[in-house]
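Now for a typical sample entry:
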Amino acid sequence: MRLKGKVIIVTGSTTGIGKAIAKRCVAEGAKVVLHGLEEDLGLEVLGEIGEKNAVFHCEDISTDRCPANLVRVAEKSFGKLDAVVNNAAWVVTSNVNNTDRAFLQKILDVNTISPFLLIQEALPQLAKTKGCVLNIGSVNAWSGEPNLLAYSISKGGLMTMTRNLGDVLIRDHGVRVNQINPGWVLTERERERKKEHGLSESWYEGLPPIYAPAGRILWPEEIAAASIYWLSDESGPISGQVVDLEQYPMIGRNAPKDTSTIK
């Protein structure tokens, strides 16, 4: 029980990586504040992990009051707050030709600014418990794919924020801030996104080595397993660190000769 007695907010925890992290946190002994936009999915997750272990808050993460509401729910339901997992994000295609000011601002609001505001709101409680923040970024923060421009910009900003606050908050408040950058993960949304792009039902099976040297992409549960180290006391004083979770190096990789496309 590596998280026994801890209270953790996990944003965007109705599906995918966030859901897997929330479930793993409860399995490790934590109480969790679930969060998302889809009430039916949130209540479904709540039913899976049990109302004695979690509470669900349904609200757009980018609204003005959401950060304060999430912290209030944690305090009211469980009496304290030990950690925040900033997982909620908007993953949407865009490029230099179709990204306008309003679109880019919305992406930044959800993926970069809202995580900062939640950290800011939660800081007094996290300082009391000498808690931590785990930001869920993306390997696209390093440069991104051609059609993930706005998303990549937002995750790059999140990564810089992690480095900055990871240094400042551990010194001034005893609060650690770290980040995981997942690679390509087989979430429910990713399955549907690729189908909407015209790929087959089984697009994730038999992927070319250039995309998946191991023969498959990552599972949400594998990201969740890695998150427990950063949320637990096992990581000690480590702060301001960003860890890429992918099956090949993002910088300086030796691309395989097989460059066939996904079918």
Notes: Residues 7-182+222-245 form a domain with the Rossmann fold fold (CATH 3.40.50.720). The mean pLDDT is 94. The chain has one domain: 7-182+222-245.
